[in-house]
């Protein structure tokens, strides 16, 4: 466990008021459940707690098209059923991204927290920032996708790039981080690395190992497609080896880590066999690099396990240990077992052979060797942010005065080269 750190944490009580629909897999309540555990484990008093500034249109169109943003705002307050064919933005009833009351405000809170994390990193106020309501990695420039309406990650990275020449994006969600990869497919200032379940029938269907970027961005996208049943030992070893090599070659100035909890065992959609300890070890490894870090949420559809995971990873960020038994809280009746950690399933078959994992490692190393080194960025005047004013601290937890605060493969997919969502930097 790491030494205590100065950690910024973003949370808005309103997040639990939003509802995708009774039968929908995505449950915003999981953020409130996470927050409850953070409170009852007494982590809250060690965090610097901020209420996010909701993102406004000027923030959102840094990446998304104005037409898309305005449509999302319009349907947020009015129930409009649209079929897939009628709706170019893929938002509507009977779609993965349904219309629900307040969907625009929900997206504003999610994106606002991630943008605020970037500002605190840019201002040097914090080197570790958390927004568990963020991490919605599937949204495209003018299209909702995979339960995601606004891509807060892309917005966060764009803000970080105002002050940081190179940003590393890492995705440990069970699904491929397609929206983020696609946005930065043509640039060498952002490296995207995604560890995900891959197969022709698994959403979103992208993320083949041969999808590596294009133009100046060639080999700045790394995809690690995995089969079902992967365990902690294999996953963590692969993660540390690949990310260690990426750090040595790319030398990022900031890292954004998407911590989707659907890669845990027992998730309703994912089929990995990871425990909270293994998932958390990836977070711990990134914290140990001593590079400014933004931790974001993402997927996770067994919501009790999402809360367990992100509360545990908040403790890792703080350098605190947690009792293995959950503290009594307002959601206690929703936990089938009273324990913090999600364990692996010993009966689940791991379809990732040692040989397959070794080939993935070697292939990543070979691609990284083709990079000449960290790309240089010509001196340029830092553009004024469209968004930011000073962030006021809503409430600051008391940090112990004597604590040391430190800052520390399958069928090929079509690729993203001709996609309309690439960002030119």
Work out the helicity level: 25-40%
For the record, the CATH architecture stands as 3-Layer(aba) Sandwich
Elements, N to C (H/E):
EHEHHHEHEHEEHEHEHHE
Total strand segments: 9
Q: How much β-strand is present in the residues?
A: 5-15%
What would you say about this model in short?
This protein is an alpha/beta fold and 425 residues long. It contains ten helices and nine strands. 30% of the residues lie in helices and 10% in strands.
Task: Describe the overall structure.
By secondary structure, the chain is of the alpha/beta class. The protein has a single domain, classed as Arginase, Chain A. 30% of the residues lie in helices and 10% in strands. The chain has ten helices and nine strands. Strands 6-5-4-7-8-3-1-2-9 form a nine-stranded mixed beta sheet, with helices on both faces. The longest helix has 21 residues.
Keywords:
425 residues, alpha/beta, Arginase, Chain A, nine-stranded mixed beta sheet, 30% helix, 10% strand, globular
Chart the SSEs and their pairings.
Blueprint: E1 7-10, H1 29-40, E2 48-50, H2 57-60, H3 66-76, H4 103-123, E3 128-131, H5 152-160, E4 167-171, H6 178-183, E5 190-197, E6 221-226, H7 232-250, E7 254-258, H8 276-287, E8 293-296, H9 303-318, H10 354-369, E9 395-396
Parallel strand pairs: 1-2, 1-3, 3-8, 4-5, 4-7, 5-6, 7-8
Antiparallel strand pairs: 2-9
Helix pairs in contact: 1-9, 4-5, 7-8, 7-10, 8-9
């Amino acid at each position: 466990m790491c030494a205590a750190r100065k950690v910024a944490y973003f949370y808005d009580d309103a997040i639990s008021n939003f509802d995708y629909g009774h039968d929908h897999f995505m449950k915003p309540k999981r953020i409130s459940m996470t927050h409850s555990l953070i409170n009852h484990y007494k982590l809250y008093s060690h965090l610097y707690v901020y209420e996010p500034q909701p993102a406004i249109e000027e923030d959102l169109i840094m990446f998304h098209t104005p037409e898309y943003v305005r449509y999302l705002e319009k349907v947020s307050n009015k129930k409009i059923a649209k079929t897939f064919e009628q709706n170019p933005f893929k938002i509507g009833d009977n779609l993965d991204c349904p219309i629900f009351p307040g969907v625009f405000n929900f997206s504003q809170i999610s994106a606002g927290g991630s943008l605020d994390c970037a500002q605190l990193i840019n201002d040097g106020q914090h080197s570790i920032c958390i927004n568990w309501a963020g991490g919605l990695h599937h949204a495209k420039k003018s299209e909702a996708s995979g339960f995601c309406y606004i891509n807060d990650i892309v917005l966060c990275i764009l803000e970080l790039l105002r002050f940081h020449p190179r940003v590393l994006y890492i995705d440990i969600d069970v699904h491929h981080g397609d929206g983020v990869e696609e946005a930065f497919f043509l640039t060498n200032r952002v490296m995207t690395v995604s560890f995900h379940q891959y197969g022709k029938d698994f959403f979103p269907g992208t993320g083949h190992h041969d999808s590596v970027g294009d133009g100046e961005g060639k080999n700045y996208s790394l995809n690690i497609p995995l089969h079902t049943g992967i365990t902690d030992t294999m996953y963590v070893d692969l993660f540390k080896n690949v990310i260690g090599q990426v750090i040595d070659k790319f030398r990022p100035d900031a890292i954004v880590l998407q911590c989707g909890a659907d890669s845990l065992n027992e998730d309703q959609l994912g089929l990995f066999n990871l425990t909270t300890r293994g998932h958390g070890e990836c977070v711990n490894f990134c914290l140990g690099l001593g590079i400014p870090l933004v931790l974001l949420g993402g997927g996770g559809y067994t919501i009790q396990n999402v809360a367990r995971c992100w509360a545990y990873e908040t403790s890792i960020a703080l350098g605190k240990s947690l009792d293995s038994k959950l503290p009594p809280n307002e959601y206690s009746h929703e936990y089938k077992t009273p324990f913090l950690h999600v364990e692996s399933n010993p009966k689940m078959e791991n379809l990732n052979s040692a040989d397959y994992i070794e080939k993935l490692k070697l292939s990543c190393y070979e691609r990284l060797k083709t990079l000449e080194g960290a790309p240089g960025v010509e001196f340029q005047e830092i553009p004024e942010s469209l968004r930011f004013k000073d962030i006021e601290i809503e409430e600051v937890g008391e940090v112990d005065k004597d604590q040391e605060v430190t800052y520390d493969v399958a069928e090929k997919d079509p690729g993203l080269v001709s996609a309309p969502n690439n960002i030119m930097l």
